[in-house]
Specification:
Largest sheet: 8 strands, mixed
Radius of gyration: 32 Å
Helix content: 10-25%
Order of helices and strands: HEEEEEEEEEEHEEHE
Amino acid sequence: MSSRNSPPIESPSLFMIALSSLLLLLALWSVALADEANQTSGTAAAQKAPEATVAPRGQRMARDIRYGEWRKVCFKTPGANTVCRTSISGTWDTGQTAVRADLIEREGEGAARLQLFLPVGLYLPAGVKLTVDQGVAYQIPYVWCLTNTCIAAQVANPKLVEQMEAGQKLSLEVVDSNVLAVTTTLPLAQFAAAHDNAPTQTFQQDVDE
């Protein structure tokens, strides 16, 4: 009885092995690209996501505030650059300071810092909104509070400083603890002259050794 031999099992060709490896690499590469795209889009979304804004429930009239004139004073300290401050203050009829705005500049530095002193009892997450005449609004965050005042401060946008020099009024809007917007208006007619000219007073601060 003769036996029939089974046909030999052929091993996969080198071409098929190479093709399978290539398809596997392409699949892994596609997954990696998808993960990278998701991470990039997520990062971009996080960067572009706007901060939560607080919408006031309404408005109320501010107490009468009497503003003085813009005034520039400088401070010189040995071994340090001169610091100048262009400021305006507003007081209530009681004589208590209600608002003070400082534009602080250090000699040799291009950036100025805007600093606002405001009453306590305001809704801090809303920050302070500044508008020159009918222009663009600028948001200034609160940075800290003391027992009798809260301070909002930020590096001043150069465009805001330019608008203050050319404008007539600076509207300052805050939100009180009842989430009502309160606005006061600071005059700007004398700001450019005070800011660009020599200081009205310079203080020499000596350092004791």
